[in-house]
Amino acid sequence: MSQAQAYLIRSIEPSDAAALHRIKTAPGVFPNTLQLPYQSLAVTEKQLQEKPANIHSLVACAADGEVAGNGGLIVNDRPRIRHSASLFLVVHDDWQGKGVGSALMRVITDMADNWLGLIRIELKVIHDNARAIALYEKFGFEYEGRMRQEQLRAGKLEDVLVMARLNWPARAAS
Description:
This protein has about 170 residues and is of the alpha+beta class. The protein has a domain at about 10-120: Aminopeptidase, CATH 3.40.630. It is about 25% helix and about 35% strand. It has 5 helices and 7 strands, in the order βααβββαβαββα. A 7-stranded mixed sheet has the order 1-2-3-4-5-7-6, sandwiched between helices. Helix 1 (about 15-25) crosses helix 2.
């Protein structure tokens, strides 16, 4: 069994709030997201309790059941852009570089292509997050633009890259 296959991917549940909170507040995670440090567990619990139907959130669990990462899609619900979604992905510091991101991306892109019928998946990533950029490129995401001084990180405004993956299945071309 390969590293990436060693993870159970499943839908996130409200009972995963503490594990997701641990990931989102990890020192190597939150600086590369839009999350603030010191976010309370109650905020994460509320997010999972009130998750809208257009958010498809998954977790990757290690063999011992530990939640190692979270990722998914926020599908646009406006009629003219329903064919697109925004991607989100976080992997706990302890699990980065161990295939968790790839395992989640494999399932997320399959869900987008084969179950949700999405044509476009887009994301934003901080310009210097080389590991994340390489992962996205591995799954067919391409650079579309740069948003200068978009995100405040540790007191400094950072550039954010916009990337997207287009999948034009035969049904879209006809």
